[in-house]
Write a structure and sequence with these properties.
Keywords: DNA-binding, Transcription, Transcription regulation. It comes from Dokdonella fugitiva. This protein has 219 residues and is mostly helical. The chain folds into 2 domains: 10-75, Arc Repressor Mutant, subunit A, CATH 1.10.10.60; 78-219, Orthogonal Bundle (Tetracycline Repressor, domain 2). The protein is built from 11 helices and no strands. It is globular.
Amino acid sequence: MNAAIAKPCGPGRPKDLEKRAAILDAAKRLFPLSGFEGTSMDAIAAEAGVSKLTVYSHFTDKETLFFAAIRARCEEQMPATLFEIDVEGPVRRQLEAIARAFFALVTAPESIALHRLLNSGTGMSEKLVQMFWEAGPQRVQCGFQQFLRHEVEAGQLVIGDIPRASSQFFALLKGELHARLMCGCSGPFTEQDIETHIRATVEFFLRAYAVNPERVVAL
């Protein structure tokens, strides 16, 4: 037997992956609470239960860790597989699945806290704001635009300006519910409130872009 193949993995590798995950989890918790400037690498190391040297060995600097934390949070709730079309399934069902994942992401307490920090400008340079955009919103937009292109090619939707349609979909999804959360003038919404909002948004979108909008209720 080839010795190189038979040799088991070194004991350090799984541990390293666990440490990386712990660092990312700590960063995802602390950045929304304290902002970029208010979150130190020492605090992240302590929260993750590792040394600061270990944090730097996985992430070269705080900006890199910030970008990775935003991206990881986004990928957890909106994985790439969410945007893979089901040619056998109704487009309404797929849009609702994307809508539910997006709404859960942007209304999570951590997301609301981070958006407030971004809007206030506290400790957030133009570079950091751009990094946030690329790691989170831009990635979601690109995934959804690709989904829409496939649905157009499959003859399910008719869209002349896909980037604009994508932006409209997510703006509609945020709507008043997200705005009230951002302002801090609304308590938790019921599951029925959220579901009604999501279904109304998807129906509105389909009435604009479905091949046969007069039959959208039946889709």
